[in-house]
Amino acid sequence: MLKNVILCVDDEKIILNSLKSQLKREFGNEYTYEVAENAIDAEELIDELVFDGCNILIIVSDWLMPGIKGDEFLIKIHKKYPQIVKIMLTGHASEEAIEKAVVEAHLLKCLAKPWSDEELIQTIKEGLNKV
Amino acid sequence: MKRQNTYEGDQQHQLLSKVLLDTINEGFVLLNEEYKIIDCNQYICKLLCIDDIVSISITEFLSDDSKIVFQNLRNDLIVKKTNEYSISLLDSDKHTIPCKITEVLIDNHSNIEAYSLLMISENVHFQELEKESQTGTNDINELSTKCKSLEQTVESLQNSMMELEVSQDNALFELSISQNEIIEQRDNLEVALNDLKNAENKISSIIHCMPDAVLVVDKNGIVVAWNMAMEKLTGIKAADMLGKGDYEYAVPFYGTKRKILVDLMFEADEILMNSYLNISHDGEIIRGEIFTSLLGNEGLYLQGSASALNDMNENVIGAIEIIRDITARVKADEKILEQQKEMATINVELRQTMEELTTQRDMLADKTTMLAETLDQLEKSQHKLVESAKMVALGQLIAGVAHEINTPLGAIRSSVTNISESLENILSSLPNFFDLLDNNDKKHFNSLLDRSIKSKITITSKEERTFKRTILSMLDNEGINQADDYADTLVDMGIYDGIEELIPFLKSGKSDDVLQMAYKVSGVLRSSRTINIAIERASKIVFALKNFTHFNQTGEMVKANIIESLEIVLTLYYNQIKQGVALIKRFDEGIIDIMCFPDELNQVWTNLIYNALQAMQNSGTLEVDISKNGNTVVVAITDSGCGIPEEIKDKIFMPFFTTKPQGEGSGLGLDIVKRIIEKHFGQIQFESVPGRTTFKVTLPINI
């Protein structure tokens, strides 16, 4: 069965839980929601999911994470999977990093924490439309 | 003379002599010097018809003519000793008695009164002649007339003679006077001549010895003086020059025979005169200067003073030139001139320098003003920098802090939405939902809800995925259609085990609704828990921030606990530390509060911990040790980073020294750290090898 996946990457579990609840509440079982707590885990998961034949539609990633930062992570994924829509969701990110992600990872949008339900859902929908 | 000697014999001899004398037919009269008769014989008394003639002057018995003869001859007596002459005596009747007289000077008459002896004899022949003449009276008269005329002639002759004598005397006198005058004049002349000679000698000596070189030439241009100084000046001896003419004297000076200054005295020569420098006229003297390369080592400057020598009639008889070596003066003048030129140049330079300086001063004044402004700005900037260094430290924190605060805020907001949305959904569907459930369904619902609420195990997303995969596999094996959704929901609800018990229920028709409702209801609780966690996290951050920047308005030290101080900073760095950094805290809990500036110490810990994390690139081991050592508290912060390179170890405390790329670090971090520690009378030291760097701060407990 071909699964359409929305992947959330954040080093904070409470964020991942909240995000997933939010997405699930909005989109229900239409998509599969995957979460990862850092870039390395996320990369592994993506490869795994792709290997399993999943279709990763959107990645929502934090910026400030241990190890690899959000922009670097998204750029790396973009090189491998340019079709995935990338969204950044962060409490703090340098302008440079955002600019870099926009240029090099075709970042759809950078959402600021704390985010509103509407802007998140709207952005996700926007992303889904691009797929 | 014989008789005289006899007369001077004894008395007898005298008597005899007297008799003899009286008897001799010749008169004897002894006279003193004043013609007075001292003694006489009888004969003369008879002759003169007078009894005694002693004490009577002989002149009483002489005619007037005879007196003169007698007196005149008497003067010669002292020389002639004996005189013989004829005179006439007068007897008592005044008859003339011609006599022949021999007067003899009495030698040695000084002892006696007698001066002379007259021997008188009657001139018989004269008497006879008289008698004859009386016979020839006419003849005599003629004769007497003739005589008288002769006498007159004689007399006039005598007068003439006398006049002549007088004249002669006068002449002689005058002559003698003249002679004296002449002698005197001659003497004077001699003296004058002598003086002249002396003067000449003196002048010669003076000229010879004069310190200035002197040349004297006569009117023919012949050298007559060439003094010692001249010899010295020219090297030519006077002997070789004196008497030479034809401008020979010019040779030592000009190397050729030519006219020189002294020649101007004989003949005006405009060209010659103009060949001299500084020509001046001082009365009769002409002065001029000239340079000659022939004298001295490097030539000499000479000043000549020439003057004509005139005789009494103002005729030029020669000329003198005095030559003085003025080289030293000229050189000095030249030097002075040169110095003056130099001075002028220096003056000009000085003026230029002065102007430049003035300009520079003005510029400097401007610059000073600018500098003052710049300094002011710098001070402000420095202040800003120090502040900004604090801000950098704070700014570095802010990245984390913003994230730290925004993350729980995001979670809260999201959770609140979830709660409100879920509640809205639940509340509207719950009554109907329960109506549709049978008891078994209700039992499963309650069971699921209870298990979800009681699930407090915090697991990672990775672990969750593992659980999900396990559950999915189980459900797939049971042939449940919605295995994937069920597995995901169960894991979300925190239900990881006892799945087997749920399988019958999950296979039932209402399982989906029941599970979804349980998920929604428990979701409210999970969101609430998320909110609680988030609030707790946010509160901790806010507390740390509050403590980090608690302002000390009094500027005085306060008591503060070092451990608390470090805990606050570590909290702020929680975000960075928790990811990949192992934190080892070794705190001696017995540490008492110390007097300090807590906010400044927080800055120290912030800097040191930030640097440690940077050195490790947020991956490694961070050790924080707080211990007591005597009267000090020692805080050691150790990282497992790359270490400080040897070459920069002595620079790390220098202001503005940074190893970070431009814009990232102010370079003031450790400088400020050091200042703050010194302000606390503490010390900071460090040890660094790759893999282990320790910064050790020692603070006194009692300040």
What does this entry look like structurally?
The complex is a heterodimer of chains A (131) and B (703). Chain A has helices at residues 13-27, 39-51, 70-80, 95-105, 117-130, and strands at 4-9, 32-36, 55-61, 85-90, 109-112. Chain A has a 5-stranded parallel beta sheet, sandwiched between helices. In chain A, helix 4 (95-105) links the parallel strand 4 and strand 5. With 131 residues, chain A is α/β, with parallel strands linked by helices. Chain A is globular. Chain A is built from 5 helices and 5 strands. The mean pLDDT of chain A is 91. The longest helix of chain A is centred in the first third of the chain and has 15 residues, at 13-27. Helix content of chain A is 49%, strand content 21%. In chain A, helix 3 packs parallel to helix 4 (95-105). Chain B has 703 residues and is of the alpha+beta class. Chain B has 20 helices and 18 strands. Chain B has helices at 2-7, 11-23, 42-48, 64-80, 124-135, 137-209, 228-234, 238-241, 251-254, 270-274, 327-436, 439-454, 461-477, 483-493, 499-507, 511-548, 562-572, 574-578, 598-616, 669-679; strands spanning 27-31, 37-40, 82-90, 96-105, 116-122, 213-218, 223-226, 277-282, 285-292, 300-310, 316-325, 558-560, 581-587, 594-596, 620-629, 632-639, 683-689, 692-700. In chain B, the strands form 4 sheets. A 6-stranded antiparallel beta sheet of chain B has the order 7-6-11-10-9-8. In chain B, a hairpin with a 2-residue loop joins strand 17 and strand 18 (692-700). The model of chain B is unreliable at 1-9 (pLDDT under 50). Classes of the chains: A alpha/beta (131), B alpha+beta (703). Chains A and B meet through helix 1 and strand 2 of A and helix 11, helix 13, helix 14, helix 16 and helix 18 of B.
